[in-house]
Amino acid sequence: MAMLSLIIATIALAGIATQSLAASRTDQPITTGMPARFQLRPWSWPVGLFALALIGTLTVLPLLALVTTSLVPAYGVRLSLTTLTLDNYAEVLFRQASTIRAFVNSFYLSALAALVLAILAIPVGLSLRSLPFRLRQALNGLIDLPYALPGIVLAVACILLFLRPLPLIGSLYNTPWIILIAYLMRFAALALRPVDAALGNIPPQMTEAAAAAGVGSFRRLVTITLPLAAPAATAGALLVFMSAYNELTVSALLWSNRNETLGVILFSLEEAGLSTQASAIAVITVAVVVALLLLLDRLKDRLPANVLPWR
């Protein structure tokens, strides 16, 4: 397993090196403006209908399949008024302690990972920006590597790293902390990339003018850099939370008794042939994420600009 993981990591490193080489040729700030508009003219309706059909096929139909499966007593039963049941939801929400525990574990682990990475993103981004370009590209590649690797490879690496007794704390294996550390490693790139882009787009004239006016470095950081980079850090934290909340491949090897995550419970139910209960959990998970998105969208006028990635 370790040798196979090493081979996969080598392939991922080659891909990251290629991406870094391509990015090094275009290391310029991105200027914003009106997006380009293409006049489709007579093709407007056909292209629009095709886009709607594609969206429906890729998103709406799978969701409908989940909902209908969660409302029948057994997989393969046709949904009708006589077969309609909410027993699957009652089972996973009120009768299975492991499912409720998984919801709580996933929420706290993903929220804590998002908070930690949001706090670290700006200091780390500033530190990387102060390094020589080639060294910065190399470190960016190392940050991207855990996200580029299959989650199970990262899980094996965490097991090998934290299984042996560690100084003072012993072993982190079979604890929720190893899952949290794996989340921090895997999703660091999601938190750092928006901040790095925001820092790169801060006009140097602003900080130079402030320095010329006698403003100290700490005050420049607080009054210029942080306000401009904070929305990007918040957007990255949202991406981390939504990605970690539904994660499976990392926690599949790292979970332990009473430390289950939603992905682990869902996969276990599906493997046990309880597809209807697994579908109920999936529908609830989608509903939680959609509710969070709608709540944030309602608060968009009270949030700084560019915080929400979809706006």
UniProtKB/TrEMBL annotation:
The chain crosses the membrane at residues 46-68, 106-126, 138-163, 175-192, 221-245, 278-296. Keywords: Cell inner membrane, Cell membrane, Membrane, Signal, Transmembrane, Transmembrane helix, Transport. InterPro entries: MetI-like, MetI-like_sf. One of its GO terms (biological process) is transmembrane transport. Residues 103-296 form the ABC transmembrane type-1 domain. It is found in: Cell inner membrane; Cell membrane. It is a multi-pass membrane protein. Gene3D superfamilies: MetI-like. It comes from the Bacteria. SUPFAM superfamilies: MetI-like. Residues 1-22 form the signal peptide. Its main location: membrane. GO terms for cellular component: plasma membrane. Belongs to the binding-protein-dependent transport system permease family. This is Iron ABC transporter permease. It comes from Devosia aurantiaca. The lineage of its organism: Bacteria, Pseudomonadati, Pseudomonadota, Alphaproteobacteria, Hyphomicrobiales.
